[in-house]
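Give me structure tokens for this 574-residue protein.
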Amino acid sequence: MRRTLFLFVLAGLFAVQSATAQPTALVGPTALNPADSTVIENATVLLEGDRIAAVGPSGEVEVPDRATVHDMPDKYVMPGLVDGHVHFFQSGGLYTRPDVIDLRGARPYAEELRRIKERLPDTFRRYLRSGVTSVVDVGGPMWNLDVRARADTTAMAPTVVTAGPLISSVERPSLGEGDPPILQITTPEAARKEVRDQIMAGVDLIKIWYIVGGGETPADYRPVVEATVDEAHNAGVRVAVHATELETARAAVEAGADILVHSVSDQPVDDAFVRLLRENDVLYTPTLVVGERYGETFAQQLDLTLAEHRIGQKDVINSLTDLRTLPDSLVPTGLRRRIQQAPTVPSDTTAMRNLKRLYEAGIDVVAGTDAGNIGTPHGPALIREFELMRTAGLTPREILATATAGGAQLMGRDDLGQIEEGMMADLVVLDRDPFADIQHATSIHRVVKNGTLFAPDRLVPRTPEEVVFQLHNAYNTHDPDAFLDAFADDVEVYRPPNTLVMEGRDTLATQYHPLLDGATNLHSEFRYHTTVGNTFTAHETIRNLPGREAPLSQVFLYRVTDGAIDRAWLVQEE
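Here you go.
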């Protein structure tokens, strides 16, 4: 009786809260629902609390007098994006996977983890700034649960669904540090116990790392996979599997896997595999970007998007070019040789063809990046994934459906991923139509999380540090467009004290486009930097300038106004 009374009172409190919540109305945008191709021009989206109360043509939606009204003509509103494959225990920087490239002599792994945890609130904000309102962390240390709890209690954070440590066929001792993200489990009995322990701790998913080594077959580890899936399913928990080879992926699905978290990339999928996925309602996350970015980083041929340069964490991106300056004792000889050769890094066309075939066969695809791996920054990496999905043959609307309704399906949520009455008020408002061009998904005007509107600069302010480090990273990745994007149109460059030597971004472009387009090993290092007010001062050393053997040392001052450099003073030292 007491419990019934408590629930009755609680329901009453929720009803009162809903009735008294300050409504918010987005009036005039074009509402886009990628899942079913619905387009409503001159729409009104009414929000109450953290829910969508109504959506429809403006003439049909009544806006309460007490509502806060945001007039948004010529804007576009769609569901918030979901990145269906991330790892919060990884930074996206060069030092984050010592099991892949061991650079602990330059940065101890414990220090890397400390930095990751320290910048977590910033990582959350950069997801929202990218339009990503929900993420699925498909495996990491048990402190993943702390990440989820922190996100749940942080206003500027995406919704987090998470798995725990990966149940793996191989060990990765260099990632240990007391709370390992990957556990080698060799027997079905041990797998069942680990599954029970993780479910008791509160994970949302179970993850298997199904790695088949030389001289092995998928059958060797299948008993552990089957036991893991059976134990998880008995508790009503789904299982995600890393299996990138066709036969391993086939074995995983036959064993009952619910989600394949990567593309099949070793060979084209066959008809039997397509039928197997369809018959078992398997979700397929292609993660096309992550392999490309490992290749680009290890060749030092990084080709980041403008969104990644603008929104990505600047210290993380800065680390990706450290391979040029680290001592030879830390960099494997073969990798150093590869950097000197500066090869072109091709995209994975097998994975792309498989994605296209599976999508056309009706397999449920979920967009995901594997963010946190080397070269794949948290937040804006999803834009590069979209570009690769477009190259594979999906339309912008189809891509956005995989990152909205598809992501909600992966999360196990039926109240996300669409603009409909009763859905969560997680939305993105854009300046340009993303159905016309997937690049327009970067034209973010506002992000709505749990019914609260955030301007982009509130999430990630364009501080002097943000702007100048964007310029610095673009210089080191030889990206003239991202470099010039840091400057105002009317920028002026002076020699001290006040001799004007260059004026206008277009003038800068005539100098820096040829320099950066033709660069191979050009690299700048900040030896010292500080910020006073809106002025950023640094002493830098530039190596491998064309036509110059000795490094160039210089001091510069950049004044940043309204998120762009509008004045620069430069002193060179020979």
